[in-house]
Amino acid sequence: MVLAAVTAEKPFAPGLEASGVVFNVQKFSLHDGQGLRTLVFFKGCPLRCQWCSNPESQSPWPELAVNPALCLGPRACGRCLSICPAGAIAEREGAIAFNRGQCAQCLACAKECPTGARFVYGRRLTVLEIVQKVEEDSVFYQRSGGGLTISGGEALGQPAFALELLKEAKKRRLNVALETSGAYGFETLAQAALYVDELFYDLKHWDEAAHLKGVGLGNREIVATLRRLAREFPQKKIVARVPVVPGFNDSLSDLKRIKALAPVNKDGQAAVEFLPYHRLGEIKYAFLGRPYPYKGVRPDQAKFESLKDELVG
Ligand code: SF4
Ligand code: SF4
Known about the structure:
Elements: E1 19-29, E2 37-42, E3 63-66, H1 79-83, E4 89-92, E5 95-98, H2 108-112, E6 118-121, E7 123-126, H3 127-135, H4 138-144, E8 147-151, H5 159-171, E9 175-180, H6 186-193, E10 198-202, H7 208-215, H8 220-232, E11 237-244, H9 252-259, E12 272-276, H10 282-287, H11 301-312
Parallel strand pairs: 2-8, 8-9, 9-10, 10-11, 11-12
Antiparallel strand pairs: 1-2, 1-7, 3-6, 4-5
Helix pairs in contact: 3-5
Bound molecules: iron/sulfur cluster (SF4) (2 copies).
The site of one iron/sulfur cluster has 14 residues, from helix 1.
């Protein structure tokens, strides 16, 4: 089954005015492609990986987040109290109380909050705004062979916007990489691949049932799409990316079977990268008022290194 994109890209204007919702633009990245890169993270993802380190990427829309540690309180500030049209904010025992279930996501309180205690994940940007930001670092790309990497969330969840951005980046001779979960199927990916120098493709599990349980979607289409992509774009650099997640896929036998699904590079080796599980995103679950499904699961760097040695060493 190929998923339909859940998109925040409408109403849609083509070319430089095309816009989509992005939750981060990260400069000077040394990963996710060759050289020094600017990473653009699209908002919206059809998967729900239990260990997701970017929970703010999952909804396609801008969304309210709250960091109570930055709040000045109702007496020193209290601006948000009078603003909320939904009655979701109240004063209780000298502090600001927030009823998230009542919040209408109008985002008005975040605009007024002077400290950033209330803030928004995600903003709408046009293709022009993004390429101008990316090109600020052109001198570094020329020296390092770097460029633009589009990531997410799932970049192809806003397919028309992604395509306009990719075309414009190529027109400007930027090196372009795309990270994808493959969840939107071959046709969307094949259109994007025409404008991409390097593709990073997530492989999370070899087993359909385990994939469904950990990610919320089976892997059959995802694996089939990767195979077809490698077959129909033999000149394209495609690298499988495998998050090594405790209790999900962190056994040598599982990882060997996942590696066997990876494309093969020109040297006849599996084009695959293994990435360690981390908990850097945990605090963001709290800001979004959501439980962290992997609470209590600790990264095991020594085990990860030893598995990696066995797999690629
Ligand atoms: S506007 Fe911000 S700092 Fe002021 S009371 Fe509300 S949350 Fe706290
Ligand atoms: S986003 Fe709007 S509805 Fe939600 S708490 Fe803020 S002001 Fe109220």
